[in-house]
What we know:
single chain; 3 helices; alpha+beta; 3-stranded mixed beta sheet; 4-stranded antiparallel beta sheet
Amino acid sequence: MSTSRFTSLSLALLIVLALLAGCQREEPPSVAKSVKKPALHVVVPEEVRAKWKAVQIVAHDKQSGRDLLYTVDTEGGRFALPGSNLEVEVAHFLPAFVTDGKTATSVSNAPSNPGIEIVVREAGVETFRGWLLRNAPADHAFQHPRYTLALQDFIARR
């Protein structure tokens, strides 16, 4: 085989390899990541609003191993998590949480299945909206590399 023919064949092979490397199949973006689940319509009965004043939330700091306890109002109470730019707000408290998938409400004032809807903002941007259920802490859990959150207790008005 002549040197010029070997050079031409080698060059052609390199061009084919370069073209194949550039032709990788692109996957379409995941629909699950781009579709945000609609929030539940929340109905807080007046008797619930009248009875319950505050909730207690435990923030577990995975770095230090410490638990931090926050007592905040049942609607609109908020706190900041130290060493982060996270702010947690309580949107609603339902002592007997039930849902049909579209609406969440409380079937009584007895704390049989207490839950709070929280909103977590990082640097002012909402990153999580969901429920913390005392009887099922793993359901709808807030996922963060440093903190976990759990509903600990609830306080009635006097």
